[in-house]
Amino acid sequence: MTPLRRCLPPRRTKDMEKADSAGRPIIASEVIVMNGSENIGHLSRRRFFGLSSTVGVAALLVGAEADRNVATASRAPVCGDPSAATNSCPPTSLQVICGDPGDRNDPLWNDVQYCIHGVVPPPPQLPPDCVHKTAQYVVLRGKPENTHNYLLLPARRIAGIECPFIWEAGAPHYWNYAWGNAMPGGVVPVKYRSIGFGVNSQDARRFNQLHIHMAGVRDSLQRRLHELENSGDIADDPTRWADPKYRVTINGSQGDRTYRALVLAGLDQNIFTLLYRNVVQKSHLKMADQTLIVVPKKTNGGFVGTFYVLNSDKSLHGGTSTCDQLLVYS
């Protein structure tokens, strides 16, 4: 397992100033406090006890709360179920892409560590409400908190859509997990007339632990997708997903945007893998730039087991890098 490493102070980015429409807000002062506790946590046990013998524990830590934070932060990072190979921490060679499991600066990864392993987040971050958890994933409440705004996060350290772990052979089908939770009668049902799921691109997201938004969608989106399918403008073969014929215009919260449209009979395939092989590789694009939205098809009789899959990026004329324009969080 990869040892903890000392982290450099974070660059000041928009992540420190803005809040995700469905994520936990973070501000610059929080990052500074997190770095302080993290640096203490990265003292090795040998060095810690060496310092303790010369200057005393009281000179290093003040109060029982600080003592507890050091004990928590110094624990080796764990990623999901240690007995499952698909949940292992990223090797050092992939941590630049997939994230360092010892990182304590990302609130969502801290939330996962708390829900799965009881690792208390560094102050001032508070422990989350772990709505549902398994060895593979965690379900949290989004922001604002309501009955149609949740997040599904892998238990494994995966920074975002750019991490190869999500499209490799044997990767968990996180979209299927999202549907199993959010569907009517599911573990954590999203209570809205129509529902959808989405992942943002690397540039569009606020936090660096992969999270699938599980939220509502407008009735107008369902109607538009039905129209496009009936007119033959949605691909039913993943190998043709990138064909210009299946680029469609859909109106969202910020006007018309262009998407590549696909319809699937079920979620028994890994949609990340389909996107990587049939769009990203074929079109010589970057996975990090992609946004992905899944909308279960609904008729007057309810959900029918068919799924619309939309993808976009800024290489498309009128394209977008965010899923937020098609999902309803508030």
Word description of this protein:
The protein contains nine helices and nine strands. With 330 residues, it is an alpha+beta fold. The chain has a nine-stranded antiparallel beta sheet with strand order 1-2-3-5-4-8-9-7-6, with helices on both faces. It is globular and about 50 Å long. Residues 1-76 have low confidence and may be disordered.
Features:
alpha+beta; nine-stranded antiparallel sheet; disordered N terminus; single chain; globular; 9 strands
TL;DR?
With 330 residues, this protein is α+β, with helices and mostly antiparallel strands. It has helices at 28-41, 45-55, 57-60, 63-73, 95-98, 107-117, 174-182, 219-230, 271-280; strands at residues 130-133, 137-141, 149-154, 194-199, 212-217, 247-252, 255-264, 291-299, 302-312. It has a 9-stranded antiparallel beta sheet with strand order 1-2-3-5-4-8-9-7-6, sandwiched between helices.
